[in-house]
Write a structure and sequence with these properties.
203 residues; mainly alpha; 2 domains; 41% helix; elongated
């Protein structure tokens, strides 16, 4: 049986079912997955300080491994140096790729350039400010940087108090939305210290 990457929605389902006391085998039957897939997911992405499984942390861990994979390490700082020079001249990633190809110069895809820009922003870089749509703050982006559904005035993870990141106190809640194939959207809430997920029985 081939292994397909678990979706974000499935990870939230795993957390909810574990909270309800379901075993890995029962969760696997519920999701149509192999029990070893569930067991491996919980083991690989459990929080290191208490061993609890939190879906938001699991997604962060998975994305981190993916970004550090060999496939995404093909390009280093020297490869992006010339690209960054053009970006700072207000030239879009798509145009940069087109110019490099026209001149017969090797270049990565524009999607890879966008990922580099967002990684730079996460390090407090300013590359994103040179994008033409910077004032609109990512009206359209790629992969996990899609801004659809974000709430106006929402406090971003990068600026929350340090004590929240340490998970040392109760009462700090983390919310997220899970959007399936249809129009419906599910709101999920997790208490960061305890890992409590509200259900009909504890609301």
């Amino acid at each position: 049986m081939g292994y397909d990457q678990l979706s974000t929605e499935e990870r939230y389902q795993i957390a909810a079912l574990r909270q309800a006391g379901r075993s890995a085998r029962q969760i696997a039957e519920e999701l149509g997955r192999h029990p070893s897939t569930i067991a491996r997911e919980v083991k690989r992405n459990a929080t290191p300080y208490d061993g609890a499984y939190r879906p938001s942390f699991a997604v962060e861990m998975t994305n981190g491994r993916r970004s550090r994979s060999r496939r995404n390490r093909r390009y280093g700082p020297s490869d992006f140096a010339a690209v960054e020079e053009h970006l700072r001249q207000e030239i879009s990633p798509e145009q940069v790729v087109g110019m490099f190809k026209r001149d017969g110069r090797p270049v990565m895809s524009h999607e890879t350039i966008y990922l580099h820009i967002w990684a730079d922003e996460a390090r407090n870089g300013t590359l994103w400010r040179h994008l033409r749509g910077a004032r609109k703050r990512r009206r359209k982006r790629y992969g996990r940087k899609d801004s659809r559904g974000r709430l106006t005035g929402k406090t971003m993870i990068g600026v929350r108090p340090e004590i929240v990141a340490q998970r040392l106190r109760c009462g700090d809640w983390e919310g997220d939305t899970v959007h399936g194939k249809g129009k419906a959207c599910v709101l999920t809430l997790v208490e960061r210290k305890s890992g409590l997920i509200p259900t009909a029985s504890n609301i």
